[in-house]
């Protein structure tokens, strides 16, 4: 054993002490509460997505002739295909939900403020990439709703002034949905977007590691509850527990509410009731409230404000110290998000 | 080369110039590769459109309409509105909503085209009457028509995606 470990030590010259130093990020005590661990949740679910996605890709065939049949094969014929597809679908749903909740937690606790502005922007990038991955993934099933969702999505891009038409052509590989569109969605969903997410995740985690986890001083908190604990093994064990709970939840959801098959896409008949995935309900309702370009430009403006918020907030706080404006704005934004989502969910048109 | 020309300034200038030259070469080289990659991702050809026979112009009377199915499968409503027998008397309305590309369908009772995606409606002339297309002042697109020797032709896209049951 000693010979074997010295053989490895010679070839991998890292001392255990260095490793301990690298992993033992001091973690503030408030991270013992699970809602402060919502950042690790999407990261865990992302790994689930990669593993289940690779397995699904063994049978998936990205062309209009074969896509729907290959998904049906995975769902109905391949051993445990229904379960893996269910895991992939539910992990996507929970991943987007946890990304949004994580962002809300960071927002309402002001964890985006100096010196963490750049990490907020990286997080916004991860949110956009998660939504795009969800959009392209949903399109791959090639059922009626996913086909028309993709058509609507590409035409939303077309409403962006100047670059819109180019973006639509780049997304669809043509003026309209065609033979090459589905393979493009597949490459974006399975290679381009996940690679970009891995890169941004690396930057996100590195910045957290360099700046440390935000510490909160709550006057109501007893003195003994403040302070820090070790990342490894204490916090790591918390994340493992959350992972286990998530796995149980995913398995239960995949079994009780499995991923189903809608009717195959018909490029000539738009269904009477058309809905995107739930995380796009808010945008879909927005598009019904305003005309094309106005809706797209206003959505772009909202995203811009979200990206630049740490700097806007800093500007406000420099002028009005102790301003709670960000909290009120956040509450209004969350209520608007919930209202538009529930409105879209409640009505047919 | 004269030994005295080899001043530190001259050497520094040459070093800077060669660095810039190298950097320029790298940017140009990789930039060209990037541009080729982006160009590759854009469609190589536009949508193929051809002129197709539609009907004899005289067979469609004023106020009448017919539904034409293009080789791409798209349903096109063709109507005659004038007596003169010129191409301006005819209109060929696309069934694709100008808002976000969904397919509209004719609602017989309401006498309107309806888009189920965002509740857009259009009158029989293709003008938007409600919903986001109305707010944006959009109308259903019209296909180009021409009359040659009394025959009405329409220019339509040719490619079709597969449909359920193999129909196109």
Task: Explain how this protein is built.
The complex is a heterodimer of chains A (349) and B (168). Chain A is mainly α. Chain A has a domain at 30-212 and 228-275: Cytochrome Bc1 Complex, Chain C (Up-down Bundle). Chain A contains 13 helices and 2 strands. In chain A, helix 4 packs across helix 5 (81-108), helix 6 packs antiparallel against helix 9 (181-211) and helix 11 (281-289) packs across helix 12 (292-319). The longest helix of chain A is centred in the middle third of the chain and has 31 residues, at 181-211. The termini of chain A are far apart. The model of chain A has no long low-confidence stretch (mean pLDDT 89). By secondary structure, chain B is α+β, with helices and mostly antiparallel strands. Chain B has 2 domains: 3-41; 49-159, Rieske [2Fe-2S] iron-sulphur domain (Rieske Iron-sulfur Protein, 3-layer Sandwich). Chain B is built from 2 helices and 10 strands. In chain B, the strands form 3 sheets. Chain B has a 4-stranded antiparallel β-sheet with strand order 5-6-7-8. In chain B, a hairpin with a 5-residue loop joins strand 7 (120-122) and strand 8. The longest helix of chain B has 34 residues, at 8-41. The mean pLDDT of chain B is 86. Classes of the chains: A mainly alpha (349), B alpha+beta (168).
Short note summarizing the structure:
With 349 residues, chain A is an all-alpha fold.
- Averaged pLDDT of chain B: 86
**Uncertain segments of chain A:** none
Q: What structural category arises from helix and sheet content of chain A? A: mainly alpha
End-to-end separation of chain A in angstroms reads: 69 Å
Low-confidence stretches of chain B: none
CATH level-3 fold name of the largest domain in chain B: Rieske Iron-sulfur Protein
Overall pLDDT of chain A: 89
Work out the helix count of chain B. 2
Spell out the helices and strands of chain A N to C.
HHEHHHHHHHEHHHH
Number of domains of chain B: 2
Share of helical residues of chain A: 55-70%
**Shape type of chain B:** elongated
- At the first level of CATH, the class of the domain at 30-212 and 228-275 in chain A is Mainly Alpha
């Amino acid at each position: 054993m000693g010979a074997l470990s010295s053989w490895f030590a010679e070839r991998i010259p890292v001392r255990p002490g260095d490793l301990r130093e690298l992993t033992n990020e001091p973690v503030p005590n408030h991270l013992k509460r699970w809602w402060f661990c919502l950042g690790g949740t999407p990261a865990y679910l992302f790994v689930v997505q990669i593993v289940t996605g690779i397995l699904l890709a063994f049978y998936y065939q990205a062309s209009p002739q074969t896509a729907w049949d290959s998904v049906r094969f995975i769902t109905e014929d391949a051993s445990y295909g229904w379960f893996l597809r269910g895991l992939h679908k539910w992990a996507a749903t929970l991943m987007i939900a946890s990304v949004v909740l994580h962002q809300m937690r960071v927002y309402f606790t002001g964890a985006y403020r100096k010196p963490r502005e750049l990490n907020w922007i990286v997080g916004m990038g991860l949110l956009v990439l998660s939504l795009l991955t969800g959009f392209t993934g949903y399109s791959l099933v090639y059922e009626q709703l996913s086909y028309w969702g993709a058509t609507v999505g590409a035409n939303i891009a077309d409403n962006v002034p100047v670059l819109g038409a180019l973006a639509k052509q780049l997304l669809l590989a043509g003026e309209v949905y065609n033979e090459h569109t589905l393979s493009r969605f597949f490459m974006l969903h399975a290679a381009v977007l996940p690679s970009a997410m891995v890169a941004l995740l690396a930057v996100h985690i590195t910045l957290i590691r360099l700046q440390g986890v935000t510490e909160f001083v709550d006057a109501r908190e007893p003195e003994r509850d403040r302070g820090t604990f070790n990342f490894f093994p204490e916090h790591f064990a918390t994340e493992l527990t959350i992972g286990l709970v998530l796995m149980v939840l995913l398995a239960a959801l995949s079994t009780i509410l499995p991923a189903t098959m809608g009717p195959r896409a018909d490029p000539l008949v738009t269904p009477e009731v058309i809905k995107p995935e739930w995380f796009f309900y808010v945008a879909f309702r927005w598009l019904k409230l305003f005309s094309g370009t106005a809706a797209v430009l206003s959505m772009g403006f909202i995203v811009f404000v979200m990206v630049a918020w740490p700097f806007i907030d800093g500007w406000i706080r420099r002028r009005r110290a102790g301003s709670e404006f960000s909290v009120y704005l956040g509450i209004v934004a969350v209520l608007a998000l919930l209202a538009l989502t529930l409105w879209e969910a409640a009505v047919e048109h | 080369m004269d030994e005295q020309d080899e001043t530190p300034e001259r050497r520094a200038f040459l070093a800077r110039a060669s660095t810039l030259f190298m950097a320029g070469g790298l940017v140009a080289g990789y930039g060209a590769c990037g541009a080729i990659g982006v160009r590759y991702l854009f469609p190589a050809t536009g949508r193929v459109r051809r002129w197709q026979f539609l009907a004899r112009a005289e067979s469609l009377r004023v106020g009448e309409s017919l539904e034409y199915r293009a080789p791409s499968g798209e349903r096109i409503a063709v109507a005659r509105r004038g007596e003169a027998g010129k191409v301006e008397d005819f209109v060929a309305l696309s069934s694709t909503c100008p808002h976000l590309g969904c397919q509209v369908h004719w609602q017989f009772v309401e006498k309107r085209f309806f888009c189920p995606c965002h509740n857009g409606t259009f009158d029989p002339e293709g003008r938007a009457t409600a919903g986001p297309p109305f707010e944006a002042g959009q109308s259903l697109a019209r296909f180009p028509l021409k009359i040659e020797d009394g025959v009405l032709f329409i220019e339509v896209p040719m490619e079709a995606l597969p449909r359920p049951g193999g129909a196109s």
